[in-house]
Design goal:
94 residues; alpha+beta; 4-stranded antiparallel sheet; 20% helix; elongated
Length: 94
Amino acid sequence: MVIKENIEKNLLTIEFHDNGIGIMQQDIYKVMSVFGQADSGYRNEGTGIGLPLSKKLVELMGGTFDIKSEAKLGTTITLNFFYEEQTCEDSIDF
């Protein structure tokens, strides 16, 4: 996991990397649909809701969700969140 902040753009980026079996490009639409699973040749014990649910939660928080993957090389998921700068005075309510 890598976390980056771009103060000039008020942007927080969180990247998740794995070096697993990866997802073939033509199967990304499948894994991003509810109950969709790629036919990777491995036994899938999941339900197929993890990635779509995660994407929806990120979007509900005003963020973006991007997935890049290559078979046999792994997957990278990038979350971007824009934020408004606040000072301590803004967060204290007397």
